[in-house]
Write a structure and sequence with these properties.
- Chain B: It is found in: Nucleus.
- Chain B: Its main location: nucleus.
- Chain B: Belongs to the RRP4 family.
- The complex is a heterodimer.
- Chain A is of the alpha+beta class.
- Chain A contains six helices and nine strands.
- Chain A is globular and about 55 Å long.
- Chain B is 33% helix and 27% strand.
- Chain B has nine helices and 17 strands.
- Classes of the chains: A alpha+beta, B alpha+beta.
- Chains A and B meet through strand 3 and helix 6 of A and helix 1 and strand 1 of B.
Chain lengths: 268, 318
């Protein structure tokens, strides 16, 4: 799948000797080696990359990368409801979401049970976030399945999953109120940090994940793992919102380019 | 690129890029390119002429905002967004191809790439004996003798019931079970509604049915009027299976046409009989084997041919 992961260029580390880089092999090991010498700087967003139409049999699909975090999303539907028992309301579409992490996505290869608590929680979070933007009323008696899988985890997986799901839903032609994007921000050594990677995340500082409706300027997701003073929190959240807007800008560019390409090939 | 993983060499890559650029430049000269929108783009409208907001639009603080990715279309006062990649949106009278997934009391349920399953009532199709009469309980028990699960069926959209479910009908000899062929699925936006969706490709002895829902059937030609008589005569003898296997030549043609459809849908070109036959003829002209039709060389050639075709169209217009 694509080129081998490289060190995030947007990050700056305090001059690790080139020797340590050569001794350690995998990017994860390199990152752990660098963790000790990590210097906190207010870096910007990691490199973003999005690709539409990566799963051929899905109604919509997308691959989304934020730095070394790489996520694939596939949308099936709107389609007939498979399990009538799950149907809450006859007048709107049922949205389902399944989040999973590939066994090879983290540094140490672990075998996770399919429905562990962490992935159940993230599935729920993504489902609720996407439900906020999908116009479910337009698709009565149907269901939309969203599958997101983390191929490479380097912090901010839930943000990347939400961004990938947005792209995939737009590709599937599901009507949406607005584009939802997500980005995380943290606070380490008195510096607000945007888009935390694994090393920064595991340093133990607070991690604020924000999801916004880009055009309407409304927050649909806000999660924080630790306590923060209110004024600091506002700074951090503002930073995360700016990150979301940058992601939104990028996602719209990709979507517009994809739409133009489809239309130009189809011809008149 | 969906579905097909091509390994292009350097020349092919350059040629493909040139042809695609050419396609893009022709599209850019039309109005449609400028009207492409994505989700949450605002659509410029003149509010004085009280416009009507159609599909794919919503209202946000007095602005008209797109809820889909697609192309803005304006018809008089109506403004709507024509979605490109999405599921099928049925319209009454559309000819569709579907697959039976369930047999329910007095009805078959069909998968037709819509957001729900479609319903074909026993009463809205002709009985195999061709007699017009009320459907009895016996008919209901014999429903599996008409269609069983996983059969591919051609039918027409009859309309929406008051509860929102989609009803189909098959009240003619040309509708009904499709056998001896291949079913292909393409994105529905590649199929345009036309007068004719059934096509008999004479020279290949093949039927091509381009369903509005993006299901395309390529199969051996069946004579619709003859079919009626064979059904009546053959049924008691029960030797339908044995005596009419498809000849090898026809099978080859079916595969060739199917690959042409696959190729066109992967590139994203509109599917019409003309484009399909043209692709098939081009493959025959340049002696391309059936399996090589999905290879990189023919892919590039097809894109180049399409670019040339559009170039000649532009020249004709000017």
């Amino acid at each position: 799948m694509g080129p081998p992961p490289t060190l995030p260029t947007s990050h700056s580390f305090s001059s690790p000797s080139p020797k340590t880089l050569q001794e350690t092999k995998t990017p994860f090991e390199i990152r752990f080696a660098l963790l000790s010498s990590l210097s906190i700087q207010n870096h910007g967003m990691r490199h973003l990359k999005g690709e539409i139409g990566v799963v051929s049999k899905a109604d919509g699909s997308a691959l989304f990368e934020m730095g070394n975090t790489r996520v694939i999303a596939a949308v099936y539907g709107p389609k007939e409801i498979q399990n009538k028992g799950q149907q809450m309301n006859n007048n709107e579409a049922l949205v389902r979401c399944e989040y999973s992490m590939a066994n090879f996505s983290t540094g140490d290869r672990t075998r996770r049970p399919k429905g562990d608590r962490r992935s159940t929680e993230i599935s729920l979070v993504i489902r609720q976030t996407m439900e906020a933007c999908i116009l479910t009323k337009l698709m009565p008696r149907s269901q939309i399945d969203i599958f997101v899988q983390v191929l490479q985890a380097d912090g901010g997986t839930r943000s990347a999953c939400i961004n990938a799901a947005t792209l995939a839903l737009a590709d599937a032609g599901v009507p949406m109120r607005d584009i939802i994007t997500s980005c995380s921000a943290g606070y380490l050594c008195t510096t607000p940090l945007l888009d935390l990677n694994y090393a920064e995340d595991s340093a133990g500082g607070p991690d604020v994940t924000v999801g916004i409706l880009a055009k309407m300027d409304k927050v649909t997701l806000l999660q924080m793992d630790a306590k923060l003073p209110l004024d600091t929190f506002e700074n951090v959240m503002q930073l995360a919102i700016e990150g979301c807007k940058a992601v939104a800008q990028y996602i719209r560019e990709i979507l517009l380019e994809n739409t133009k390409q489809l239309e130009s090939r189809r011809g008149s | 690129m969906r579905d097909l993983h091509l390994s292009l060499n350097q020349t092919q890559r350059v040629r493909l890029q040139a042809a695609l650029d050419q396609l893009e430049s022709y599209a850019a000269s039309t109005a449609a390119a400028a009207a492409s929108v994505t989700v949450a783009d605002s659509i410029p409208v003149n509010h004085e002429d009280n416009i009507l907001k159609g599909h794919g639009t919503s209202d946000l603080d007095g602005q008209v905002v797109a809820t889909l990715c697609g192309v803005v279309e304006r018809v008089n006062k109506l403004v709507y967004v024509r979605a490109l990649r999405s599921r099928y949106k049925p319209e009454v009278g559309d000819i569709i191809v579907g697959r039976v997934i369930e047999i329910a009391p007095k009805r078959w349920r069909l998968e037709i790439n819509f957001s729900q399953d479609a319903v074909l009532m026993l009463s809205s199709m002709n009985l195999p004996d061709g007699i017009q009469r009320r459907r009895t309980a016996v008919d209901e028990l014999n429903m599996r003798s008409i269609f069983v699960e996983n059969d591919v069926i051609c039918a027409e959209v009859r309309g929406f019931q008051h509860d929102g479910s989609l009803q189909l009908q098959a009240r003619s000899q040309k509708y009904g079970k499709l056998e001896k062929g291949q079913l292909l699925t393409v994105p529905p936006y590649l199929v345009k509604r036309r007068k004719q969706h059934f096509h008999h490709l004479d020279q290949y002895n093949v039927d091509l049915i381009v369903g509005c829902n993006g299901f395309v059937w390529v199969g051996e030609h069946v004579e619709t009027s003859e079919k009626e008589s064979t059904l009546l005569s053959d049924k008691p003898s029960g030797k339908q299976e044995t005596d009419n296997s498809v000849p090898l030549e026809t099978r080859r043609h079916i595969c060739r046409i199917a690959n042409a459809v696959r190729l066109l849908s992967v590139i994203g070109l509109t599917l019409t009989v003309e484009s399909v036959t043209e692709t098939v003829e081009a493959s025959l002209r340049s002696n391309i084997e059936i399996n090589e039709m999905l290879g990189s060389e023919f892919y590039v050639q097809t894109v180049e041919r399409e670019a040339q075709r559009r170039a000649s169209m532009v020249r004709k217009r000017s």
